[in-house]
């Protein structure tokens, strides 16, 4: 299976360029994977959890958890099990009753959102598309986990790979609140898991770029076109053969 081998020098140069233009701003940093073969439609596929070395959540981040009804049941469960890291519990029923202005205030108040993975597909039409456009997708967690505190901590220390039809994946690997070394750490740690979940695996990688939201992507890897190389070799052999025939004449 072909490997994706990143060159440290090229990666460091791209990260230095990226951070040079982001001083004073905090934005998301993405790994863009362009594939050779188009990814087919995959409906209702849950995002894959991808481990990171450095969390994307800044210290003091407030987190809201979306749950099934009744809301009190899940709030009390978190209190009883002494789960830290979740600051608000909101049921699907309560969310449905909220006005657009109240939902907008949620996005302002909370820096991250969790969702009981059993209601992930139900949440989007209720929550509204704006939060997804801003790439603040709620993070799915299992509320049936025996160690719920570990489940929350693992989610905080991870990113997520979403699956859509097309030839491009985008995976959040950092923010400009981190430094370039930390983003490189995250990329190195996350890449093996990303490639394992990639349609047709590492051999389907055409190019890799890193990008700050809304900015120009910076290249960090390009696959060798083996088919193109073979065609060039065949063409050279044909030209060489033609020259030999001419010499014989």
What report would you give on this structure?
Strand 9 (205-212) and strand 10 (218-222) form a beta hairpin. The chain starts with 7 loop residues before the first helix and ends with a helix. It contains nine helices and ten strands. The model is unreliable at 226-244 (pLDDT under 50). 22% of the residues are buried. By secondary structure, the protein is α/β, with parallel strands linked by helices. It has helices spanning 8-20, 71-80, 92-96, 100-109, 120-127, 130-133, 148-156, 180-197, 226-248; strands at residues 28-39, 48-51, 63-67, 88-91, 112-116, 139-141, 158-161, 166-175, 205-212, 218-222. It folds into two domains: 1-43 and 163-225, Ribulose 1,5 Bisphosphate Carboxylase/Oxygenase; 46-159, Rossmann fold (3-Layer(aba) Sandwich). The chain is 40% helix and 24% strand. Helix 1 (8-20) crosses helix 8 (180-197). The strands form three sheets. It has a four-stranded antiparallel beta sheet with strand order 8-1-9-10. The radius of gyration is 23 Å and the shape is globular.
